Amino acid sequence: MKQWILGATLATFTASVAHAGDIGVTISHSDSNLAVLVQGMKDEAAKVKQPLQIEFAEGDVNKQLSQVQNFIAAGVDAIIVNTVETSATPAMTKMAADAGIPLVYVNNTPSDVKELGPKAAFVGSDEYVAGTLQAKEVCRVLKESGKTKDAGILIIQGILANETAVLRSKAIHDVAAAPDCNFMKIIDEQSANWDPVKAQDLMTNWITAGYKPAAVLANNDEMALGAVNSLKAAGWDTKDVVIAGVDATQEALHYMQNGDLAVTVFQDALGQGAGSVDAAIKLAKGEKVESPMWIPYELVNPANVAQYLKKN
Predict the structure, then answer these.
(1) Of 109, 211, 111, 208, whose CA–CA distance to 155 is shortest?
(2) Which domain of life is it from (predicted)?
(3) Which residue, 87, 145, 94, is CA-closest to 117?
């Protein structure tokens, strides 16, 4: 179903060549959270009848750089980027600035967020806050269950060249180092590139290696669900392991209702998408916009999950 939705989005909004008057959009890859982000863009653009051309970089940073170059060559009014690798953003920022085309980064924090200049902006959420909320809640749940001595935790990271993965993981380390939660001991951490299948394989490898974690913290929900599926396949009771993600996707919330996911963090992907289009339109008109434009994260657990079922 996810593939059909993304395919329909691509078919609706992507043409082979952008034309003047468009806002060009490049999305890092296809997943359920980014599908919501794209929907937020579509909804906002429809309100003001703003043409969009949306392309997917399929996790390929070189492809994304090429897409940005093509948008510039086509003379679009503005460009929106959900970046594959945040380390590549200075090059994209320079290309757009040299061409005099407004640029808006969305969702993934660009590495040059403090040096974007007057014709560029970032709309997103503070990734360090997401990791902090996630890790503190895991700490609380472990304490509540009496697991306060050498509680081993595993971290499943996103793409390591992406600031989102770096900051969310750093926050987990910082929480685990704090006096209140230093009983949490990091056993291992590896990247699964945001991919649920790779996360499932990674979790299976950890189980085979004999790891017995008290908690598994993933940088996004899709990888968290991959870990859940692996544990179930190995015959583990997911109630014995605190599984945590980030994004509060609909699928993740259903896993939480079923008792398989203990923690996630709501990321307002609809709001980010809408905010990025609004910022791009304003910059194209020569107006100033706030940057960074922070959209708050919110903790989601079984006690409040019902409040988030229709938000993303």
Answers:
(1) 211
(2) Bacteria
(3) 94
